[in-house]
Amino acid sequence: MLIRKPRHEPASSEITPEAVWQSRREWMARAAMAAAAAGLPAWASRSAFAQSGAELPGRPNPAYSVMDKPTEWKDVTTYNNYYEFGVDKDEPAKYADKLQTRPWTVSVEGEVLRPQTFDIDTLLKLAPLEDRVYRLRCVEGWSMVIPWVGYSLSTLLKQVEPTGNAKYVEFTTVEQRENMPGLRYPVLEWPYVEALRLDEAMHPLALLVFGLYGKVLPNQNGAPMRLAVPWKYGFKSAKSIVRIRLVERQPTSSWMQAAANEYGFYANVNPDVPHPRWSQATERRIGEGGFFTPKRKTLLFNGYADQVASLYQGMDLAANY
Ligand SMILES: Nc1nc2c(c(=O)[nH]1)N[C@H]1C(S)=C(S)[C@@H](COP(=O)(O)O)O[C@H]1N2
Ligand SMILES: [Mo]
Known about the structure:
Distance between the termini: 24 Å
Shape: globular
Number of strands: 13
CATH topology: Sulfite Oxidase, Chain A, domain 2
Order of helices and strands: HEHHEEHEEHEEHEEEEHEEH
CATH class: Alpha Beta
CATH superfamily: Oxidoreductase, molybdopterin-binding domain
Low-confidence stretches: 1-15, 37-48
Strand content: 15-25%
Bound molecules: ligand MTE, molybdenum atom
C-alpha cells in the first residue's frame, strides 16, 4: 500500500499558542453571532443535523490550523464555486436551497476489503469533529480562510481497508437533475469527479468536512459532506460527495476532462507554475480591502509545504501540475 507517514510534524510556527487560539475562538464566536444577527434563518435549530446553519461544533485543532483571520461568514457562503448550481459566484447561494441532503448515503468501494455504504448520520459520528482553520486557494486567483468542521479523510478510508492495489481515490459528487439548474449546461462532464493519490488522501490534512464556523455546512458549500485539501487548488475539494472509489489507475477528473492542459491531476498550489492563461504568483484574499488593495503572494503548496512537500519528493512539479 502506498501510505507514507508525513516526514515532518507541523513546524512550530504553524502551531497556535493556546492563548491566541482562545482569542481567535472568541473572535469566531463573535463573527457567528454577527451572522446570526444578520438574519440566519430561525428554523436553523429545528432539525439538528440536516439543516444548514444548525450548530455543529468541533474541537479546535490548533496544530492543523492557520493563524490568518477567517473570511467572513457572509463571503464564505455567498461567493462560491459550485457549477451544478451555475457558474456565477452568487448562483450557488441563490439556488442551493433545493439540494436534498437527507436521506444521503456515501458508498465507499473499489479496491477495499470491506466496501460499505454509510449513512450520512453515521459518518457524522464516525470520529470526533475538529475545528480547523484552513486556507482555500482557488485556481482563479482568489483565496479565503475557512474554519471547517470535520475529521481526517484517512479515518474513513481506514474503515474500509484499502487493498494493496489501491493507488488512487476517486470522489463522485451528487447529481440531482431537478434541483441543480447548472446540470443543464455542459460546462463540465457531470457528475463532478475529483481524485487524489492514496498517500495524499491519507495525509491527516485532507479533511472530510461536515460544517463550517461551528455550523452544519450550508448547501452552497457542499452539504452534507465535502473535502477540504488545503494545499491544492480549490477544485480538488469536491462538494456533496456520494461515492468514494479506491482504484489502481489514476482517474480522470472532470476538470482534466474539460481541459487537461489547464487543470492537471495534482493541482498543487504553486506560484511558479502559471495556469496557461494567467499567473498563479499572487492572489486576492476575499474580504480584504478593495480593488486597489495589494495582492498577496501565493505560497508553494498554499503555505503547507512543511507538512506535504515530502509527498512529492523527486517529482517535477512543473510537469506534474
Ligand atoms: N461538486 C462540485 N464541487 C466543487 C466545485 C463544483 O463546481 N462542484 N467547485 C470547486 C471549486 S473550483 C472551488 S474553489 C471550491 C469552492 O468551495 P467553497 O464554495 O466552499 O469556497 O469547491 C470546489 N468543489
Ligand atoms: Mo476553484
